[in-house]
Amino acid sequence: MHDTELVTTIATLMQSRQTILPKRLVAPGPDAEQLQQILEAAASAPDHGQLLPWRFVLVPQTARAELATAFGTALLERDAQATAEQVQQAQEKAYRSPCLLLVVVDARRGDPDIDLFERIVSTGCAVQNLLLMATALGLGSALTSGKALKSAALRTLFGLQQDEHALCFVSLGTVQSSKPGRLRPRAQDYVTTLAVPLDTPASA
Question: What's the pTM value of the predicted model, to 2 decimals?
Fold first, then answer.
């Protein structure tokens, strides 16, 4: 027998999660206790072989200037003709949201035979658990990515090893403003049933 009230609560939590752009996330961010709850929620993710192929790097306010420099350098790595204004816009992204985490997945940690895709799936589950806990605590959240994640400047700043990949940033904070929740797809929009052809009768 399932707990109907618990099921309803969990369904409501999942349906209420929405992306809040980092520029709309303001202080206060999660306090120390809340952040611990959020990070511990990630541990419930499925993890083939118990590799722990993912990790999170907290970017405190004291390190935002270095991150801003890395963002600016990353832009210039891609486009040497970028204007000073464009570089400044790239740098400003480092200061958005009061709490910022980098998500890193290791392609070879533990058992190298466990495929990178499995590791990324595990990482995605860990991130979703984290986002849901943040939502449960009344906080807004967002995932952001971009070409800077693959840059030498960012990899150097975070000390990423050869087989480590920066997947995305997680932003957390108090919601300053939000848009109406978007219409979610229905199950029939993304679920099909495998059709197995009937056996062909043997010839007489």
Answer: 0.91
